[in-house]
Write a structure and sequence with these properties.
globular; alpha/beta; two-stranded antiparallel sheet; about 45% helix
Length: about 325
């Protein structure tokens, strides 16, 4: 049997992460029984108090047990914690020594979405890859510079520590864990029952690039604004450096530090974000969109588009086009 500890944090947590995990793993047990095999998962909700009020009193979760009652577990699930993340981490800091001790005893760890912030607060992610919701990627990098955030990934796996990307991508990580523990056949049954795309590995198609402006470097901010207002033109690093009276190397260094993108990457991402919006809402063909965002080379446009979104322009249009959705 695999003992699964689903944490029930104090404050506002993701109910889908908590209840969804319980439901999916329970269903996996049901499939195993139907196949003539023994159930594999002993599932427990583990908290810091006997009752945990959620969503301003709308829901109350009563954990099966408290952390002091669990001396040995095989997998700890950390759900997303919402609201002020620093306050949430402070409110739930009593979990941290227990998580660290359990990991030392062999327990594996999995964080869902922005639960990665709490997992990172244990120090166990230092030097490792990590996924979280793409919207909070820059905040995560600022808070945990020793963790290697890969914001395009649906999940990461390293040394018995697992993380998932934004929102409902936790289902992809659950299917992965079921396959790891119970086998591919059970994972496929679960994926089909809950209609989970078993082979989805990237959250790039879902990312909306909004530009990272939560910094105090005014010349870099002005350079960002110029790029966003003139993305259809050919913009060079030398041009921007001259405009804002900075050396090229200085601008590149400061730009990367402030935005987590090189200048060239930022220009590309702004162009591709504009292209994505055109493909989603307009009736323009791929070439028209390409020219409007400042590309003249079809191959370069397609290569950059796929690098940023994980899809070709045609695949993206087919996935999100309003015209197709209303056809």
């Amino acid at each position: 049997m695999k003992h699964i500890s689903i944490l029930v944090p104090l404050g506002h947590s993701s109910l889908p992460n908590i209840d969804g995990t319980h439901q999916v793993l329970s269903e996996a047990n049901g499939f195993l029984t139907a196949m003539g095999r023994d159930p594999l998962f002993t599932i427990r909700l583990v908290g810091l108090s006997k009752e945990t009020v959620q969503r301003n009193g709308l829901y109350t979760i009563c954990p099966d047990c408290l952390i002091g009652d669990v001396t040995q577990t095989d997998l700890i699930i950390i759900p997303a914690m919402h609201g002020d993340l620093e306050k949430a981490m402070e409110l739930n800091k009593a979990f941290i020594p227990w998580i660290i001790q359990q990991h030392r005893q062999g327990a594996e760890l999995a964080s869902f979405c922005i639960g990665a912030f709490f997992l990172a607060a244990t120090g166990l992610l230092n030097g490792k890859q990590c996924a979280t919701h793409w919207q909070l990627a820059n905040q995560f990098r600022n808070m945990f510079p020793d963790v290697h955030l890969v914001d395009d990934k649906i999940m990461t796996v390293a040394d018995g520590i697992y993380t998932s990307g934004g929102a409902y991508s936790f289902l992809n990580l659950l299917v992965y864990l079921i396959e790891r523990y119970a086998g591919r056949d059970v994972a496929i049954l679960v994926a089909k029952a809950f209609m989970i795309d078993i082979d989805r590995y990237s959250q790039s198609p879902f990312i909306i690039f909004q530009g990272q402006k939560a910094h105090q470097d005014e010349p870099v901010r002005k350079a960002q604004e110029f790029i966003e207002q003139n993305f259809e033109e050919k913009i060079t690093v030398d041009q921007l450096a001259s405009m804002f009276a900075l050396g090229r190397r200085s601008l590149e260094r400061r730009f990367k530090k402030a935005t987590s993108n090189t200048v060239t990457e930022y220009i590309q991402r702004v162009k591709i974000e504009a292209a994505k919006k055109d493909l989603e809402t307009g009736r323009k063909n791929i070439n028209e969109v390409m020219y409007e965002v400042g590309y003249n080379d079809v191959k370069a446009f397609r290569t950059t588009f796929r690098k940023v979104t994980g899809l070709s322009p045609v695949e993206y249009k087919n996935k999100y086009s309003k015209e197709i959705l209303t056809a």
